C-alpha cells in the first residue's frame, strides 16, 4: 500500500525581476535572484531528466484550454519504478497565476531532491515524488507579460456572456463548490469559482494527480501567500467551515507543529499552526478541502508564507531565497513523517 502526499504551492511576487537569459546550463546554480519563465522551468525539468535519468522523469500531466502543456517531474529511483509499496508525494504549484514564489519553491524542491540527493537520500530512496511546478501555465505566462498583468490570479478561460477572463483554480474544486464562501459567481471577480465545479483543465490536472491514489493513503499541502497576518502559518482543514475539522485533527496538529518546528530550527522563521478558518477567511472549492472531503486524504495542509511587499503576496525578489528555504524544510519534515507513517492510519 502506498502513502501519498500532495503538496500544492501557491504564493506570489509583484514587480520582481524576470530572468532574461536563455542559458539553461546556468540554472543548475538555481539562481533565485529573479523569477523564471515557464519555458525556463520546463527546460530545467528536462535538464534534470537528462542529467539524472536514474531518478528524474518528465511527464505531461495535462493541457490547458489554450493548448499549453502542463508538465510534471516524477522523482523515484529507477529500481522502484514498478513498485507500489513506496509512499507517494505529489507537489503542485502555481495554480494562482501571480504565485511566482510558490513556483520557485517547487523548482527548489525538485532541485534539492535531485541535485542534492546525497544530502536527502532517505526521502528519495523511500518515497516517490510527483511535482507539477506550474499548474496554471496560461495564467502564469500572462502574469509575466506586462507590469499591468502582474497581479493576475485566474487562468485564461473565455467566460461565456462576459468580457471578463478566467476562473480561480483554487475556488473550482468540487467540494462545497459555489457556496459563495470566499468565492464569487461574478466572472470579473478574482475569486470567480467558474461555470461549474471542476470545469477547468488545470483543476482536472491537479485532481488527476490526487484521484489516481484515491484508495490509498496520502496527504496534501497547498502553499499560499499570507495576506492576513505577518507570520507564516501551517493550517489544516476545513477552509470552507470555521467549525469543521477532520476526525484526525490531533494528528494533523501534531504534524503541523513538527513542520513549524523544522522551519524555525533551520531558518529562524515563525510559522503559526491552526485550522485554516482560524487564521484566514473561509473559502469554498479549495484543493485542500477536495483532497480531504472527496478523496479522504488523512493529512492535508495549507501553508501560508510570511506576508511581504505592499499586498502581502507581492514578495520582493530578494526574499526568494529565504522563503523557498522555509518551504523546503516544511516539505522535508512532512516527507520524513511520511517515510515512518503507519500504513493503517487512513482515517479522516
TrEMBL record:
<keyword id="KW-0645">Protease</keyword>
<keyword id="KW-0482">Metalloprotease</keyword>
<keyword id="KW-0121">Carboxypeptidase</keyword>
<keyword id="KW-0732">Signal</keyword>
<dbReference type="GO" id="GO:0006508">
    <property type="term" value="P:proteolysis"/>
</dbReference>
<dbReference type="GO" id="GO:0004181">
    <property type="term" value="F:metallocarboxypeptidase activity"/>
</dbReference>
<dbReference type="InterPro" id="IPR000834">
    <property type="entry name" value="Peptidase_M14"/>
</dbReference>
<comment type="similarity">
    <text>Belongs to the peptidase M14 family.</text>
</comment>
<dbReference type="GO" id="GO:0005615">
    <property type="term" value="C:extracellular space"/>
</dbReference>
<protein>
    <recommendedName>
        <fullName>Peptidase M14 domain-containing protein</fullName>
    </recommendedName>
</protein>
<keyword id="KW-0479">Metal-binding</keyword>
<keyword id="KW-0378">Hydrolase</keyword>
<feature type="domain" description="Peptidase M14">
    <location>
        <begin position="34"/>
        <end position="338"/>
    </location>
</feature>
<feature type="signal peptide">
    <location>
        <begin position="1"/>
        <end position="15"/>
    </location>
</feature>
<keyword id="KW-0862">Zinc</keyword>
<dbReference type="Pfam" id="PF00246">
    <property type="entry name" value="Peptidase_M14"/>
</dbReference>
<dbReference type="GO" id="GO:0008270">
    <property type="term" value="F:zinc ion binding"/>
</dbReference>
Amino acid at each position: 500500500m502506498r502513502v501519498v502526499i500532495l503538496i500544492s504551492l501557491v504564493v506570489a511576487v509583484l514587480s520582481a525581476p524576470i530572468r532574461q537569459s536563455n542559458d539553461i546550463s546556468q540554472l543548475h546554480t538555481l539562481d533565485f535572484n529573479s523569477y523564471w519563465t515557464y519555458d525556463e522551468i520546463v527546460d530545467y525539468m528536462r535538464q534534470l531528466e537528462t542529467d539524472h535519468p536514474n531518478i528524474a522523469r518528465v511527464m505531461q500531466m495535462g493541457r490547458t484550454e489554450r493548448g499549453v502543456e502542463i508538465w510534471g517531474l516524477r522523482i523515484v529511483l529507477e529500481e522502484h519504478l514498478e513498485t507500489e509499496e513506496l509512499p507517494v508525494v505529489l507537489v503542485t504549484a502555481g495554480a494562482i497565476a501571480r504565485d511566482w514564489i510558490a513556483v520557485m519553491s517547487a523548482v527548489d524542491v525538485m532541485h534539492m531532491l535531485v541535485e542534492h540527493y546525497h544530502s536527502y537520500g532517505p526521502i528519495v530512496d523511500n518515497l516517490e515524488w510527483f511535482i507539477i511546478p506550474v499548474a496554471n501555465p496560461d495564467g502564469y505566462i500572462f502574469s509575466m507579460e506586462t507590469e499591468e498583468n502582474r497581479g493576475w490570479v485566474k487562468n485564461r478561460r473565455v467566460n461565456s456572456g462576459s468580457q471578463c477572463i478566467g476562473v480561480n483554480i483554487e475556488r473550482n474544486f468540487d467540494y462545497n463548490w459555489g457556496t459563495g464562501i470566499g468565492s464569487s459567481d461574478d466572472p470579473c471577480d478574482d475569486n470567480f469559482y467558474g461555470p461549474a465545479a471542476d470545469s477547468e483543465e488545470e483543476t482536472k490536472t491537479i485532481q488527476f494527480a490526487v484521484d489516481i491514489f484515491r484508495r490509498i493513503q496520502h496527504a496534501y499541502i497547498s502553499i499560499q501567500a499570507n495576506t492576513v497576518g505577518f507570520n507564516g502559518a501551517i493550517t489544516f482543514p476545513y477552509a470552507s467551515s470555521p467549525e469543521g475539522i477532520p476526525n484526525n485533527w490531533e494528528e494533523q496538529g501534531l504534524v503541523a507543529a513538527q513542520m513549524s518546528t523544522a522551519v524555525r530550527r533551520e531558518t529562524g522563521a515563525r510559522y503559526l499552526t491552526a485550522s485554516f478558518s482560524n487564521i484566514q477567511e473561509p473559502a469554498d472549492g479549495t484543493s485542500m478541502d477536495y483532497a480531504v472531503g472527496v478523496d479522504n486524504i488523512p493529512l492535508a495542509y495549507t501553508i501560508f508564507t510570511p506576508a511581504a511587499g505592499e499586498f502581502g503576496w507581492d514578495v520582493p525578489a530578494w526574499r526568494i531565497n529565504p522563503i523557498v528555504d522555509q518551504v523546503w524544510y516544511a516539505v522535508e519534515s512532512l516527507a520524513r513523517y511520511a517515510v515512518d507513517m503507519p500504513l493503517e492510519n487512513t482515517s479522516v
